[in-house]
Write a structure and sequence with these properties.
disordered N terminus, globular, 6 strands, alpha/beta, 10% strand, six-stranded mixed sheet
């Protein structure tokens, strides 16, 4: 039987699923293998400033290979690491943020927030994860969906402690280099919290749509990422069926625009930094690089 403390222990882990939400509801196109393929890395540079852009996967299975000589050179050359959000620090504070934003009042039971034909899949997923329905009923729709998605990932062996961000953090801490975030945890969860109820329900429906296919779809995304196949990654996030217009605007476009603005301003300061964000943000029509190009800033792929 789960308790509130069980949920709190898992709440901060839910953040690791943010960069992979589309994997719950859509497949990745077949990857185009390229010789010597490696996860994509870009560089924005002028006379005295370099910003590396590295696309990441937030959760990974055991044994996933992603480091390369080129990436290690970029890590060594950079003075600091910038992530979407820094997950370290006080885990209880992280959990409290999740609980504060994710709990609601006067909500209908979670099953009633989905069409009747989706409810059997929701019931099956809840039983699989072991979360008491009474707890989920008290959560806002986005929070319940994110909780179920995260636990689904955990059950198929995807672990945030094996994710790229954790590995990069270890490297930069070993070099005594500063680590910061483009967003706070409250901001990141707040993107979900500001979604309209219809969009939250679309997100939940995507989570329960085909949980039996999640591992295969996630493996395809990791394969594309490892090969540096940004076209395959883009096909996931640019698909008209992957994200609703509101989800696309809030989770992708708005954040990418803010990050492109951050890079633009950072170019006014000398030095070298590594910016590591979810791979989907660096692929497709609304990528950070496209938004930088609109500002007259060129991102050159170096891996």
């Amino acid at each position: 039987m789960w308790s509130w403390s069980d949920l709190r222990k898992r709440a901060s882990t839910a953040l690791a699923a943010l960069g992979a939400v589309s994997a719950a509801g859509c497949a990745v196109a077949q990857t185009k293998e390229r010789a010597g393929g490696q996860p994509a890395l870009w560089k924005v540079a002028d006379a005295d400033t370099t910003v590396y852009l590295f696309g990441t996967i937030h959760l990974l299975p055991e044994g996933t290979k992603w480091r390369s000589a080129e990436l290690e050179r970029a890590i060594k050359a950079s003075d600091a690491l910038v992530l979407e959000v820094v997950l370290g620090g006080d885990p209880m504070k992280s959990a409290q943020t999740m609980m504060r934003l994710g709990m609601g009042k006067g909500l209908p039971p979670l099953a009633e927030r989905l069409p009747a034909d989706k409810r059997p899949a929701l019931e099956k997923l809840i039983k699989t994860t072991g979360v008491p329905p009474a707890l989920l009923d008290q959560m806002e729709t986005w929070a319940a969906g994110l909780t179920l998605l995260t636990l689904s990932f955990q059950q198929i062996g995807l672990k945030p402690e094996l994710g790229v961000e954790r590995g990069l953090e270890e490297s930069y801490r070993a070099g005594k280099k500063p680590i910061s975030g483009l967003e706070t945890m409250e901001q990141q969860l707040g993107y979900f919290d500001t979604l309209s109820e219809p969009s939250q329900r679309l997100f939940l429906a995507g989570v329960v749509e085909s949980p039996e296919n999640v591992r295969a779809e996630f493996d395809a995304m990791v394969k594309a990422w490892q090969a540096g196949d940004t076209d395959a990654i883009a096909s996931t996030f640019d698909s008209e069926t992957a994200l609703s217009p509101e989800l696309r605007e809030v989770l992708m476009k708005r954040r990418n625009a803010a990050w492109a603005e951050w890079v633009d301003k950072r170019m006014d300061q000398p030095g070298t930094v590594m910016v590591a964000v979810g791979a989907g943000h660096l692929a497709g029509a609304d990528s950070v690089q496209r938004m930088l190009a609109a500002k007259g800033i060129k991102a050159t792929r170096v891996q």
